[in-house]
Structures are given as C-alpha cells and as structure tokens.
Amino acid sequence: MVNKTNTKPTPKPKKGTTATKPSQTKKKEKKLYNVIFFKNWCKSCGICTALCVKQIIKSDETGVPYIDDMDSCTGCRFCEIHCPDFAITIKSRHPERRESNGN
Amino acid sequence: MLERAEIVRKEYLRHDKKFPHVWCPGCGNGIVMGALLRAIHALELSKDEVVLASGIGCSGRMPTYADFNTIHTTHGRALTFSTGIKLAKPELTVLTVMGDGDSTAIGGNHFIHAARRNLNLTAIIINNSTYGMTGGQYSPTTPFGSISATSVYGHVEHAFSIAELAATAGASFVARSTVYHATHLEEMLKLAIKKRGFSVMEVISNCHVQYGKKNKLGGAVQMINSYKDNAVKVDKAAKMSQEELEGKITIGVLADVDKPVSTEVYRQVVKDAQKKAGKISKETDKNGVKRYEE
Amino acid sequence: METDDNANKILLQGNEAIVAGALAAGCRFFAGYPITPASEISELLSVKLPQVGGTFIQMEDEIASMGAVIGASLAGVKSMTATSGPGFSLIQENLGYGCITETPCVIVNVMRGGPSTGLPTSVAQGDVQMARWGTHGDHPIIVLAVSSVADCFSITVKAFNLSEKYRSPVIILSDEVVAHTRESVVLPPQDSIRVFDRVKPDVPPEWYKPYADNNRGVPDMASFGDGYRHHVTGLVHDEKGYPTQNAKEVDSFLRRIHGKISKGFKEIQITKDYMMEDAEVCVIAYGSVARSALRAVRDARERGVKAGLIQLVTLFPFPRKAVDTYLRQCRAAIVPEMNMGQMAREISRVNQSSCRIVKHNRIDGHLITPEEIFKHLTTV
Q1: What ipTM was estimated for this complex?
Q2: B20 and A40 in contact by Cβ < 8 A?
Q3: What superfamily would CATH give domain B4-258?
C-alpha cells in the first residue's frame, strides 16, 4: 500500500478526533472504520462480541451488538467473517481516500 | 468499492429469499457459507457457472440462500446428483455441501466412490458431530462416549475421521479447517475449488444447540473458541505423538495428489469413440445384424 | 417397398431396441448398475453413448444412478437408467425427487421374478403397482409397458417425448421375455422420428419463475449453466423454487403437478386394440403376455369366438376411458398377468358395467401361453 498518491489538498473535516491531522503525517494516520450491524438479520448469538480482538463490541440486554468506541476498531474484520448471519459490514470511514490509495 | 461482507451480501445472497436464514443463532453453517462465497468471489467464478448442491440436514439449506445454480437433493445423495451434473456439463464448477451424517452415514457409499472416481468435484463437509436438524442423534462423527439424543448413556461406537477417510478413498485433495479459522477456511476452500479432481474440505463446526448442549460444551462462543485452542496445523501435528494429538483438530492440507481426472479422461474416450464410430457405421449399415457390435 | 424393408431388417433383442430408441430420442446420458436382466442396456450404451458424444457411467448403486440421471437432466441432457426389481426398489427414493422437481428422465425396469432377489432370470410382472406407487407421497407418474422388440424402440422414443413434454419421470416396464427375445425389426429412419425437447424459457433470467403455472401446467425448464440461476429442491416449493409451507402454495403446487398429467390424458393414455369392433369377450393384457393373448384371440376367432384384445401400453395414468368403453361392450374380460392380479385390480376398479373380470395369474417364472388364455376365451 503506497500512500504517496494522496494529493488531496485539504482533508474533509472528520467526526473523530484522532484523525484530524494534516495530510503530511500520512504514516501515522489511523484508519477509521464503521462497523455496521444489520439488525434485521442479527440473531444475537454473541460471536462478534466474544471474538472482537479489541473487545469493543458490547451487547445490549437483548444481546444485540453495538459499539460505543468505534474509533478503536482496527478493521480486522474478524467479526465480519465470523458473523454466521451476514449481519456485519465493516466500512472504511473514508472510502473515497481508500480508493485513491489504490486499496 | 464494495466491502467484503457487502459484496457477499449484495452479489451472492438471494434477496428474494427470506432472511435471516433458518440456522440457529451462532450456527457455524453461516460462517462456512460466508467463507465459501468469499472464496468463490476471490476465484472470480461466474455465478452462472457455479452449481451448489447439498443433501439434507442443516447444511442442506445452504444452497437456498446462494445465488448460483442450486440444488437441494435427497439425504446423502448430493454427490450423485453432482456427478450427473458435472458429467453432463463439465464446464460447470460443481460444489457439494454436506453434513457429517449426510456424507458419511447415509451417503457414505457415494462419498467414498466419488473420491475413488475422481471427478472434478468439490465436497464441502460441515462436521458438527451430530444430526442437528432431527434433534441431535449420534452421527458417524460423534465421539466415543459422548451424549446424544440416541446415546444418552454415552456413545458406544467410534467416530469416522472424514478427512482421513476421504484421503484413503482416493480423493485428490483433502483439507480440514474449523469455523474459528474463517480466513484459513477461505484459503483452503480456494485451493479445494481450484484443484482438478475430487477435493474434500472438512469443516469442523459447532452445534451448540444439540451436541454442545448435551455434552456441556457451552454455547456457540465457547465451542468456536475451543477450536482455536485445539487446532493444530498439519506440519506441527506431524511432529506430535498420538497421545498429544488426542482431542486435537489437525487443520490444513492433509492430502494433495495429482492423478487423472475421470471427467477429463472420459472426454478423450468420447472423442476417440466418435472418430471410430464414423468408420463402424459405414460398415455395419449394410449388415444390420452387426449394427451394434464393435 | 417390401424389398426395402427386408434390406433394413435387423435382428435385435428388446434391450437393444430400447437402446436404439433412447438414442433416437436424443438420450445422451446413462447411469446404471449391473443387474439381470437389464444389463445389456448398460453394456450397449457404454459403447454407443461415447460414439454420439454422450456420457455413460456405472454408479455404485441404483440410488446413485437415479441421482446422476436427475442431475444430468437438470443440466440439460436427456438421460435414463435401466434396472430390474431390486434396483427398482432402490431407485424409488430419487424417483420421488424427479417427480417433485419435475425432472424429465426415463427409467427402464426389466421385470423379473420377486420379491427380493426372487427369480433373477425369470419373467414376471410383479412391479406394476410399484411402478405407480413405489415412491412415497402422492405423486404423478407415467408408466408404459412394452410387449415386443418393435415396441421397445417406439415406446422408448415415446417415453422420452412424454417425459420432456410433461416434465415427469417416465417408467418403461419391460420384462425378461421382451428384453431377451430376438426379433427382426425395421427401425424407422431418424428423420421420420418425432422428437420432443423440453421447452426452455425465453424470458430474461430475472423474470424466470421455474415452477410457475401456465396453460399447460408444465413450466418452462432452464438447465443449469444456461444463465437462469434457480433453485431445485425436493421440498415442496413455490413458483420460484424456494421451500414453502404456505398451505395455498403447497396445495396449488401439488394440484398442478397432478393436473399437468391429467391435462395430457389424451396423448399419454395409449391402448392398442385388436379385433375389438365386434368383440364379445376380450383379453386385457400388457407386456409379453399381450403377445400370447393376441395369438389366443386369433385362435379363438378361428373357432368362431368373437374375441378381441386390448393391449395396455400406458399402464398409468390408467387408461380408464378406453378400458371402460370396451368393458361395456363385452360380457367378460380376461386379464392374464404374471402376478397376482395387479392390473386386474385397476380394471375391476374402473368397471362400471356388468362385464365379468376373469383373472388369470401365473407366478411360476414362466410366460403365460396362448393356450391358457385360449381356454378362458372359449369357456367364458
């Protein structure tokens, strides 16, 4: 992955706090992800909660998963590939930049 | 660019089919299906050229949800249908999903003969050590001594090892993985599908609702985590003693041999026979009695 | 044209004629398992099919054979299997699958003595009701019987045509005598044979409903690999092919698959009659027995008995209309069979007139002779 192709003059304002650095510090820039739970298909089995490497997936009293600390997600997709119900999608929070990075 | 899960969900699932699917919460079948769909996507197979066949049981429901040419056959017979499909249209990629009881009990004969025959087919066997759909009766892979709906005093028979059985029966490619090792599983599936010849992919999966519950193995999470603890890669397992391997799951490629694939050999037979037939028919048309003699 | 016919005459046995018929009808896939007295069909097809670009495979048992046959048919290739009693028992499981998934295929059952291993090399007609009701569940099926080598050819072609047209498995009941009798026959030239191929969908794939009703009751059939990705299941399914338990969908599906056969009664129910115009007594027979019966009827005519023969070609759906009409005209009907009266049961069931049904059963592994039938004709 080569990040040099990033020629955007000004990065868009972000919701997160960690990634608001200017583009010259590309190497340290943390990639952010959104974990989307497709609740209609989720059966609250608890696998994602248990297997999350960062242990950030919590579940509410009915077992439905949610994430408070979304910025901690490393995008490892371990929950996504272990969800038996195809109910988890992980999206990069800056899809347009990912694309220009050739990723 | 679509993300991975989204690709699977948008491109490969049947949206006119009602979701969520029928499997119990936490069932490994969904994990296997996800890995399979990702593997197919990675191999860039055309959906029109993939046939997904299955037998009966929980695993048998998988084709219903996948957007290929799909067939849900009779119990244990999936490989026989796949054989017919493959022989009739060799250009199709025919994948057969079966359960442990499906493939090695009622379909045991078809399974070993498919391995011996070595058609270019891929068998994916989800082994959850029980008959889940019918209520957790013992299957050919239920471990000795364990409890099932029909062995409440402890199982008195010994279990099959599906991958080893397949290798012995002559399968060209045999691999094993578990539902915990989803990425490994996906890689193994890719190899199995790509392999020319009969390939078998055994996937150790959890039935926490029947087998797990009866044997106090915990829920889906505990069972899946136990695969992480018990799995041993093939090369490591080779250095371990029989005692050390007790209760362990050997994962990885267990057999990979190259030998003539009968589907391909038969095409040559057909070509030769057609050439020869041109001569024969001229001779025998005059003499009708010999019409059907070589 | 007689000289021409003589030149084209060939000596064939029943099993060989079935092979010729199958190939003429476009059969390009065979899966089977060795069994007496049907093995010649496998043997010959293992030679012939590769020559025409087809596929032959010997499976591990008859269950597998039937599975492969259905698989091949779903992939778009006309396919068949041939077996005898014990193998016919094994076939029943996947035969039901063929019925519910409406997969065209032809099953030849060369009947031998039963039950079980029975009399492997002797003739019998014990599988008649089994052919109709062998697989579980209410299901429609077509059963045809052959009585001569010429029949073996033409009925096999017919069987393939019906199976393609009605998307239904078709069973051909042959028997050991027909299978192994050698006769000289003239096979019609290929271009004179009417071959029917399944109707393929012509709508865009996203519109395709693989089990939707239409005016024929027979949905268009796409093959695997045609671009019409669809689901095939042995569960009761809706018109898209997905499993359903919805009472309305289940009912309409099952009624449709029965109804499609009923709609075709006129074409499916085949009977042949001999000297029936003024007959007062008749013989109703099928299979090799029909040959004996014809001889007996001719002999009886010579004796002045107004006898006739109804040869049942289609056994199921039972040709009720035709049989009923003839029964009304006769005072007695003799039903010779090499079983304990499996077809006589059907005939008695549809008999609305005062016609007496006389059963004649022989189950010793030998063919019923013309004399036996003749005796009945002259005494009833």
Answers
A1: 0.96
A2: yes
A3: Thiamin diphosphate (ThDP)-binding fold, Pyr/PP domains (3.40.50.970)
